[in-house]
Amino acid sequence: MAVMGRGCAWAIGSFVLGVLALGGLGCSHDRAIAKAAVKLQNPDAAVRRAAVVALGEMRDPKATRVLVEMLNDPDTVVRANAAAALGKVGDGSAVPALQKALADKKHWVRWDAARALGLIGDKAGVPDLTRVATQDANANVRRAAVDALAAIGDKSAIAALVKAVGDNDGSVAYAASRALEALTGKSLGANPLQWREWWGKEGKNLAATADAKGDSEPTAEEK
Fold first, then answer.
1. If both were cysteines, with which of 17, 73, 94, 143 could 86 make a disulfide (CB 3.0 to 4.6 Å apart)?
2. Could you give the domains of the chain?
3. Helices (H), strands (E): how many in the chain?
4. Region 210-219: what's the mean pLDDT?
C-alpha cells in the first residue's frame, strides 16, 4: 500500500499544531479542522479521502495549505477530492497548485482541478485553462475547463473558446458556444464557422479593447 512521503506528513503535522495555536483549544471549529487533518496521515486511503472531503465542507481557508499538500497524495481519489475541496474553500493561494494539477496523469483529477479553478475565479488560472480546454485528451476535462473559463469571465479566453466550438465532442462545443455568448453578447450558436468568421472580423478587436482597458491579459493566440 502506498503511503505519503515524510514531507507531506510533516506539513500536515505542522498545520495541525498551527491551527490549534491560532484557534485555541476552545474553538470547536478549529479543533474539527485539526481532527480532520490528523486523519490525512492515515495509511488507509479511504480515511484520507473522507478527511479531505470533510475539510472541503468546512470551507475554511486555514485548510488550504494542507489540502494543497494532498494534491500530491499517491491515491488518485484523494488528489481529486483535494482539488474539489480547494474549489469549495475558494482560497486564491491554491491557484498555482491547481494549475499544476491540470497536468495530473489521471483525468478525473484534472477535471476536479479545472472545476476548482472556475469556482475560485482567479484570472491567473486562465492561461492553463485555455490550454486544457483545447488540448486535453479527455472531453470531460475539456468541458470542465470551458465551464471554468465561462465562470471566470476573462475575455483573454475568447480565442481558445472559438477554437473549442469546433471540438469533436458536442458537449464541449456547446459549452464553448454558451461561454462565448456570455463573454461577447453574440448569439451564434454552436456553429464553429460563424464564430471563426466573427473572430476574424470583430473578435480580435473586442479582445484588444478589453486589454486596453486592463480587463484581461492577451493570450499567445491573440498576440
1. 94
2. 1-94 (1.25.10.10), 121-223 (no CATH)
3. 13, 0
4. 49
